[in-house]
Amino acid sequence: MATTGKRRILYRQGSGFWRMTAKWILAFGALYLLDGGLLRSWGDALVWPMIGILLWVPFGIGVVWYPRKDQRVELTARELRVRRKRLPMEKVNLLHVARLWLEGRSTADEQPVSEWTRSDRVVWVPLRDGRAFGVEFRDPAAFAKVFGAFAVAACGGPDIVRARAAAETYPDPLPIRPRPAGDTGSWLDALDIFS
């Protein structure tokens, strides 16, 4: 949890560019040290940093990072920010999130959150109008833990959540499906769920 100005950030996921670059440097740096220290001379081992630099743009940025560049997510008490789009919490069905969190589940699927592995995974964020949109996370269980605890607190606590869930009815969120592959642009950009 971090504080930026007057905003309290509950969860943040960056694009992973610098993490990817650091791994790239470590991999080719290790090859350089191994080759220069054990196999050949340091001058001959300079070929590995050169290869790393030459491959960094097409493979490191193009293949590794670019497909995941849109995974920037930020959660505050007021909004969920996905890339440059902002979703106010007033539009999110926090009661549904809180109820599922107390049951140990999430909107991603029926598998308990505690059994999720750390890998890219879409978590569905339910809206009050019965829709749900998917957000991709590298560590979905960490986001689900923060989002679920926030939803329970925002709804007044576990006892109030259970009482409201038993008394209120709302439609089960239906996932918003992306456009066909022929359409240009991001499918989230065309939706009006963000203000």
Q: How does this structure look, described?
A:
- With 195 residues, the chain is of the alpha+beta class.
- Helices cover 41% and strands 19% of the residues.
- It is built from 6 helices and 8 strands.
- It has helices at 17-39, 42-45, 47-65, 94-102, 140-154, 158-167; strands spanning 2-4, 7-13, 73-76, 79-82, 85-88, 121-126, 131-137, 174-175.
- The strands form 2 sheets. Strands 1-2-3-4-5 form a 5-stranded antiparallel β-sheet. Strands 6-7-8 form a 3-stranded mixed β-sheet.
- A hairpin with a 4-residue loop joins strand 6 and strand 7.
- Helix 1 runs antiparallel to helix 3 (47-65) and helix 4 (94-102) crosses helix 5.
- The longest helix has 23 residues, at 17-39.
- It is elongated and about 75 Å long.
- Mean pLDDT is 77; it is low at 179-195.
Spatially, the strands of the biggest sheet line up as 1-2-3-4-5
Percent of sequence in beta strands: 15-25%
- Rg, alpha carbons: 22 Å
Indicate the structural class: alpha+beta
Secondary-structure element order, N to C: EEHHHEEEHEEHHE
Q: Which quaternary structure do these chains form?
A: single chain
Helix content: 40-55%
| CA-based shape | elongated
pLDDT averaged over residues: 77
Count all strands and give the number: 8
Q: Span between N and C termini?
A: 25 Å
Query: Tell me about the biggest sheet?
Result: 5 strands, antiparallel
Question: What are the segments in which pLDDT stays under 50 over at least 5 consecutive residues?
Answer: 179-195
Number of H- or I-type helical stretches: 6
